[in-house]
């Protein structure tokens, strides 16, 4: 498909939304600079789009100062522009409705109750999560509403041990819904899904399953910049895990260290971030293989990917690019597309921070080729590409800008 790019329509940038939020508070740029610790020149550059407002830690600093949610700056959820993204977004309302019905009587029909099959339901949950991690979001969207309904019915009609199994399947289905909603930019609905994951995981009476749900809970606090709360949840969970016994516990331990590293990076605590990253790498080395316990994708490959993502979060473009030279060469072709695409997004941002526009664009295009919808719906890609376009308004960068809604 060819895209016209002679007269693109304008869409708001993160900087323009930041300026509007500041004016809503009746603050001057100088006031915003004082409240956030950024220079007046930096605030002006962000608002005018001369400086890319895409780093999580920077967005969170402005959001906390202005008393708003980070998505009020990033503009999520984005309107899907292409047909595949529209298909992927088609189930958002139905999934949200299923989440709202959590805990209410399912009132299954006789046929629904008779059709409850935990083995079949397990296969359907596994397939939905496989599609999501494969970045086949339209396929995920097509399956989720009925899957959530059937898992809720199973919890209601099963008894004793089967009910605990049903709760585990419901927790996994909610996790799939949560990840899907986050990818599509619907953070409020995704937060609701996370609460449902916590509730269902506790009902399984499986300590590791319940701790895995806390990993997602920590992410909720991290996403809104409540770093102390996120750190408390992570530290409590690491303490509960203790010396990890068995590969499942070890992979969960490593995943918590990665989450702690990201939390510290966004809280401007680089030394703490590096300490947790080292602990995660040690756990991955001890594990020796990539695992997918509780859909957390932990192992040597994911730890290597994070060794690039973490410096990007801290704005260290040169370090990210240098590390990526080794990571890219060893990245398995069969690693889940969702994670591979996100890696190339981070690599693109690293090149951008390092001042290499061409390599940044090449990395974004590679991410798009792996997972088109996930890349086009990524707020950081959109904002970085928007900034790139300001000085180069023709060719592939502009075409990408149209696809991601940066214009």
From TrEMBL:
> Per its UniProt record, what InterPro entries does this chain match?
Cro/C1-type_HTH (IPR001387), Lambda_DNA-bd_dom_sf (IPR010982)
- A Pfam family recorded for this sequence: HTH_31
State the source organism's domain of life: Bacteria
Residue ranges constituting the HTH cro/C1-type domain according to the UniProt record? 18-73
Name this polypeptide is given: Helix-turn-helix domain-containing protein
């Amino acid at each position: 498909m060819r895209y016209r790019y002679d007269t693109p329509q304008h869409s708001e940038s993160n900087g323009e939304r930041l300026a509007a939020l500041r004016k809503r508070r009746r603050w001057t740029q100088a006031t915003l600079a004082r409240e956030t610790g950024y220079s007046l020149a930096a605030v002006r550059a962000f608002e005018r789009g001369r400086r890319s407002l895409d780093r999580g830690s920077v967005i969170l600093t402005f959001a906390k100062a202005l008393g708003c949610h980070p998505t009020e700056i990033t503009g999520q959820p984005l309107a899907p522009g292409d047909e595949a993204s529209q298909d992927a977004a088609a189930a958002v309302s139905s999934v949200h409705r299923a989440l709202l019905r959590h805990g209410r009587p399912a009132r299954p029909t006789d046929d629904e109750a008779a059709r409850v099959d935990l083995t079949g339901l397990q296969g359907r949950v596994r397939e939905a999560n496989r599609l999501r991690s494969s970045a086949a979001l339209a396929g995920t969207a097509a399956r989720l509403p009925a899957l959530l309904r059937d898992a809720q019915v199973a919890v209601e009609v099963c008894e004793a041990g089967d009910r605990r199994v049903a709760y585990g399947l419901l927790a996994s289905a909610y996790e799939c819904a949560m990840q899907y909603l986050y990818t599509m930019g619907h953070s409020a609905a995704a937060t609701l899904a996370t609460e449902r994951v916590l509730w269902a995981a506790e009902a399984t009476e499986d300590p590791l399953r319940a701790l895995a749900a806390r990993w997602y809970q920590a992410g909720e606090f991290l996403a809104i910049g409540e770093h102390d709360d996120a750190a408390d949840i992570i530290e409590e969970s690491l303490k509960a895990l203790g010396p990890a016994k068995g590969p499942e516990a070890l992979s969960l331990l490593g995943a918590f260290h990665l989450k702690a590293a990201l939390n510290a990076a966004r809280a401007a605590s680089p030394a703490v971030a590096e300490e947790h990253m080292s602990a995660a790498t040690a756990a991955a080395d001890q594990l020796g293989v990539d695992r997918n316990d509780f859909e957390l994708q932990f192992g040597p490959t994911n730890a290597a990917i994070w060794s690039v993502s973490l410096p990007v979060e801290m704005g260290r473009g040169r370090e990210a690019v240098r590390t990526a030279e080794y990571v890219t060469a060893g990245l398995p072709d069969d690693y889940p597309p969702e994670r591979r695409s996100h890696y190339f997004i981070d690599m693109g941002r690293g090149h951008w921070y390092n001042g290499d526009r061409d390599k940044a664009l090449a990395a974004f295009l590679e991410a798009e080729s792996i997972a088109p919808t996930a890349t086009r719906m990524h707020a950081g890609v959109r904002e970085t590409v928007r900034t790139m376009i300001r000085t180069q308004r023709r060719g592939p960068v502009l075409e990408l800008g149209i696809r991601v809604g940066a214009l």
